Here is the input.
Amino acid sequence: QVQLVESGGGLVQAGGSLRLSCAASGRTFSSYSVGWFRQAPGKEREFVAAIGWSDANTYYANSVKGRFTISRDNAKSTVYLQMNSLKPEDTALYHCAARTLFTTMEEAEYDYWGQGTQVTVSS
Here is the structure.
């Protein structure tokens, strides 16, 4: 079992930055791939970014490419999502999720989920 806790969300103006954290406890975190997903009100949850267990492989949704950066610190069992140049359309509840084996953008492939952290971007 892996427990995930997100933090770092908040209210920010358009053009601003936030850094989300996903802290894990439980089994060896370094063997897990981690993804970030988000869900805006009235919309389906969507993929944002993912990182492999060795952080050599990273993936991004087209909508955030060039603005968001995913990284991990296995010594701290934490994955980060640095979000720059935020836009009002980035407003959503952001979840991190973990799985063993290969990295994927498919949310159904993830086994463990956090409760989420709210990001609100004002125009």
Q: What stands out?
A: The first strand starts at residue 2 and ends at 7. Residues 33 and 52 are 4 Å apart (CA to CA). The chain has a mean pLDDT of 94. The radius of gyration is 13 Å.
